[in-house]
Amino acid sequence: MSKTFFIDLTKCTACRGCQVACKQWKKLPAEKTVNWGSRQNPKDLSGVTLKLVRFSEVETNGKLQWLFYPEQCRHCVEPPCIDAMTVPGSIVHDQETGAVIYTSLTAKEPNKESFAANCPYDIPRINKETGMVVKCDMCNDRVKMGMLPACVLTCPTGAMNFGEREDMLELAEKNLEAAQKRYPDAELVDEYTVRVIYLVQTSPTSYHEYLEADASSIQRGPLSRKQFLAKLASPLKRMNS
Amino acid sequence: MTNHWIDLKNSDCILIMGSNAAENHPISFKWVTKAQEKGATVIHVDPRFTRTSAKADMYAPIRSGADIAVLGGMIKYILDNDLIFKEYVLEYTNASFIVGDKYAFDNGIFSGYNRETRSYDLSQWAFAMDENGNPKKDPTLQDPRCVYQMLRKHYERYTLDNVEAISGMTRADIVKFYETYAATGKKDKAGTIMYAMGWTQHTVGVQNIRAMAIIQLLLGNIGIPGGGVNALRGEANVQGSTDHGLLYHILPGYLATPLAAHQSLAEYNKAFTPVSNDPMSANWWQNFPKYSASLLKSMWMDDDPAVSFNYLPKLDTAAASVYSWLNLFDKMDKGQFKGLFAWGMNPACSGANTHKTRQALTRLDWLVNVNIFPNETGSFWEGPGMDPSKIKTEVFFLPCSVSIEKEGSVSNSGRWMQWRYQGPDAPHGFKPDGDLMYELMHEIQALYKKEGGVYPEPILRFNLEGWATNGIFDPHKTAKLINGHFTRDVEIGGTVYKKGTQVPSFAMLQADGSTCSGNWLYCNSYTEQGNMAARRSLAQTPEQEKLGLFPNYTWCWPVNRRILYNRASVDPTGKPWNPELPLIQWDAITKKWVGDVPDGGWAPGERHPFIMTRFGFGQLYGPGRADGPLPEYYEPLECPVNSHPFSTTLHNPTAISYADEDKAVCDPRYPFVGTTYRVTEHWQTGLMTRNQEWLVEMEPQMFVEMSEELAALRGITNGEKVIVESVRGSVWAKAMVTKRFKPFDVQGTVIHQVGLPWHYGWTWPKDGGDSANILTPSVGDPNTGIPETKAFMVNVRKA
Q1: What is B644-695 written as a DSSP string?
Q2: What's the predicted TM-score (pTM) here?
Q3: Out of B680, B740, B767, whose CB is closest to A16?
Q4: Which residue among B49, B59, B697 sits closest to A33, beta carbon to beta carbon?
Q5: For chain B, which has fewer Cβ within 10 Å, the N-terminal or C-terminal residue?
Q6: How many pairs of residues across A and B have Cβ atoms under 8 Å apart?
Q7: Distance between CA A114 and CA A119 in Å, rounded?
Q8: How far is CA B718 from CA B5, B672, B760, in A?
Q9: How far apart are CA B776 and CA B779, in angstroms?
Q10: Over the stretch B17-46, which tens digit does the pLDDT of each residue have?
């Protein structure tokens, strides 16, 4: 029963219910924030913020888009962060659900920054209090009990979906076809290599630098998209960001 | 809502105007999204590009307060291009009615205006009547005095040039908007409107909604699935509190509050019971005496309603300018109140013109603040600019339990009465509001018993034990009393209803005291079959399922009718206009309607469908409002222009205002239009949400959104602290410089607009800021008294 999220950003209203639901289920404290001229708050993921809705205003040819991106760990099919592990058991890849889980042993890792360095999506953060490297764990405790992840359960519009991988891939293709009628540039992001598939209405970088896997070290031009993704999926490939 | 939340999915075109539904009613977008999936077009008209605009198929910016220009222009566009749903307009609206001779309109003023009292003599707007006492009609719609022709004439000034010049909306947007929405005037198309405080909080609030109602009637969009006029209520139970008489001018069930002039129940009933001589008009309010008597009986069980009518408090006048919110605080400020119960409210932040409101609280002898958290109202005496040593007001704080800590019902925007069970117990023995009110009234009764007093009967004879079991407030018993029961054995149509049995439906309520009902609209909600609001069955017929009617899930007033005026969804022979989405259908064999609960069980064509109106027709021309039978354009009482293209009457001549309070009109000190709004993350004055750290983390501080152009003009950088000031006061806010606000071109001049949330208050969080209502004026709509907090004038400068 390998699991996958499908997040249709054309339907996300940035209500941020997912951002709060994550904190609630994980019993994570609020950060002390100030308004910094954006709705996005906190500014970034952190040791106590594992899910963050990012806001981006993009204006092209006088047409404004306000893009919303609920960011979280992708639970890569072949997680490159595992290669950063030096303490056995600090990362557990649950073969049943596909969840990539950072354990308390991450606190013993000598080079915690390498987790983020190895992540093509710049997700892992360090919790200053516990010293652990942290990120979304797919609400694996809930999922094992047959419940939806907290963020998915709270989504009012159907933007966030979760289920069997084949079902989610099928839903993603179906929604992509519908979305392309309204947004010709709509696409699925890295759908073959990750367990959190985003449907975007415009280029992924318009949302955020790391919505799509960072390909800065890859010559993208000569590669087909399939080749590129295959390369990314390879456990031998190191991502440096 | 005439319709309900789920029904949004049945729409072909959803207009969101005067609302930011995606942010302020997030769950509504479940159904808006479903409509879009099926091909519906979503249009958002708003001064600012919001999270709603981001999801809309079309977004058109409009200067705050210019709605009637744009909507009046749409009425003209529909009529000029003959896009009306002809059969519907002719059969179901008052388009053919002839307007009486006394009605006139000249240069922004309707006939019957009294400059001294700033009010109209509404009798001048009446219809011309025939020899049988029915309105004269011209079914050819050619008579120059018929409503259809009057509409044409009234809105001929609302040209594209004029609309564009005053609203700041571009010509291309206006035309595209009109074309797209007017396309729903087809038999098989439905258009709906989702509006909220962006329409109501204006000195023309009621007329904003009237203008849209006219459009909906012209396009045949009322009474049908995916149509209607849908007010998105600001609180989960605002619908319920309004139904149960929260406002000064209505008792429970929208029965008018009696006036001092009504010396008897008979006089009161006569004043509010309309008469129609048309046998095809259901004229539902003809039942008024049954509902008033049943209400009185529920309150004073041991008295004849003719006697207990005298117990009701009476108003001197029904004018909103006298008894509504703004004037309560004006009188309080003048020292005319001794005490105030602020119950589940935070007027020190929520009321317009905050400084005045807070000052008014200092004139009180006592203030009882009932809430789940301490707030700015209870702490006003130690707030900014206050000297506690000079304030006499004694403040009592009564903490109460939260909604999930008690049992009872809420009625949502879609009129669904939903029973909720109690979750956890309240901490520290805090009690529900019902218990507090019961115990308070118990004490008052005891004091009157002990000490006597002037006219003690209304208090001592009050049916307080009707709410309680063994001296404890009982929500079930109260809900049963709201439904009502027979107070003696009654025979109706051959059936005998025993004393004490629940009344099955309001059709059985009586005018002679033999029934009681705390709210006739809720009669049928708690019957001998049980608590209908507690039902949770998802069972429905295939036709109901297609629409998502869910008739067995909770209960909906009236009599579980999910869409109001549903007899307008079928033609006069009972066939649905849109056979693909039938709401009700006449079964010729069983001689019954199937589908939704119909607006009366009469056979097709036996009654006009708009049963709540006197004559049975949808009111294109509505002679009952305080400021005119047709919506007319006026500027907000604070505005950036000194003229508009429609008349030389700049403002609504009947608006509520206080002559001694300055207003900024074309005042160079306050050059920018200001507006207030909400964010998803906070609730009302923020009382609940400012105490919730995860929400404060997301929206920690007061902010002001402004365009990049305005920021450049004032040298303001994104994220820096700035001052926003109006005639009444100033607040600090974090500048949010955004592409989502753009300057407007208004009559050739660049007009900037800014907007602020009103969720903050000085108590908590400490660096959160204060209420945006410090900026807003005490001016209001003449029908409702609602303040104009959506359009006023400000300045913005670096802090």
Answers
A1: BTTBS--B-TT-B--TTS---BS-TTS-EEEEEE--TT--TTSTTTTT-HHH
A2: 0.96
A3: B680
A4: B697
A5: C
A6: 102
A7: 8
A8: 37, 18, 20
A9: 9
A10: 999 999 999 999 999 999 999 999 999 999
